[in-house]
């Protein structure tokens, strides 16, 4: 479809006034993304209406476009209110319906108890084994780094970490 002069004029009006239109709609709907949608809908409605609406008798085409944006924004706002009333949640408490990311108090208490148990089990380990395990598991160190720090061979570092992990697994299984 080849755009007529009026289509080009309509597009030029929307492009030059886009920021104003979005800000105007945003003041009504309260959300920038929704305001962008309103302005886009207004353009498509006017484009579909074609030259019938944008004829020579239209004295204020910019005012006409703002009026359409205003009407669509008000309709959108009403729809949001209706939907929030239908669901039974007001707009300001929408975030209250989102579950929290943190565990419940019972899970927190269990985790604290397990952490205390793990600290006790780690305290039972020989010093070099505990340090090797902590460096590997908590510090992310490689066996070569552990070996250099503890002045032992890489094989010995591997054995210390493996034995320490086995000790922890055995003790945790016994306590549970």
TrEMBL record:
Organism domain of life: Bacteria
Does Nucleotide-binding count among this protein's keywords? no
Q: Which segments constitute the RNA polymerase sigma-70 region domain?
A: 16-79
List this protein's GO terms for biological process: DNA-templated transcription initiation
Question: Keywords in UniProt for this one?
Answer: Sigma factor, Transcription, Transcription regulation
Query: What are the residue boundaries of the RNA polymerase sigma factor 70 region 4 type domain, all occurrences included?
Result: 116-168
Signal sequence residues: none
Task: Give one GO molecular function term.
Answer: DNA binding
**Which InterPro entries does this UniProt record tie to the protein?**
RNA_pol_sigma-70-like, RNA_pol_sigma-70_dom, RNA_pol_sigma70_r2, RNA_pol_sigma70_r4_t2, RNA_pol_sigma_r2, RNA_pol_sigma_r3/r4-like, WH-like_DNA-bd_sf
Give the family from UniProt: Belongs to the sigma-70 factor family. ECF subfamily.
Name of the featured protein? RNA polymerase subunit sigma-24
Organism encoding this protein: Thalassospira xianhensis MCCC 1A02616
* Taxonomic classification: Bacteria, Pseudomonadati, Pseudomonadota, Alphaproteobacteria, Rhodospirillales
């Amino acid at each position: 479809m080849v755009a007529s002069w009026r289509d080009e004029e309509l597009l030029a009006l929307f492009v030059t006034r886009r920021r104003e239109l979005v800000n105007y709609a945003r003041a009504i709907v309260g959300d920038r993304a929704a305001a962008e949608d309103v302005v886009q809908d207004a353009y498509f409605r006017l484009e579909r209406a074609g030259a019938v609406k944008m004829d020579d008798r239209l004295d204020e085409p910019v005012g006409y476009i703002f009026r359409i944006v205003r009407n669509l924004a008000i309709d959108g706002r009403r729809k949001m209110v209706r939907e929030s009333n239908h669901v039974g949640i007001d707009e300001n408490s929408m975030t209250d319906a989102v579950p929290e990311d943190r565990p419940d108090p019972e899970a927190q208490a269990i985790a604290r108890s397990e952490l205390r148990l793990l600290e006790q089990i780690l305290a039972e380990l020989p010093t070099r084994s505990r340090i090797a395990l902590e460096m590997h598991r908590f510090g992310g160190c490689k066996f070569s780094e552990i070996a250099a720090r503890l002045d032992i061979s890489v094989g010995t570092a591997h054995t210390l970490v493996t034995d320490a992990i086995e000790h922890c697994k055995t003790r945790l299984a016994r306590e549970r």
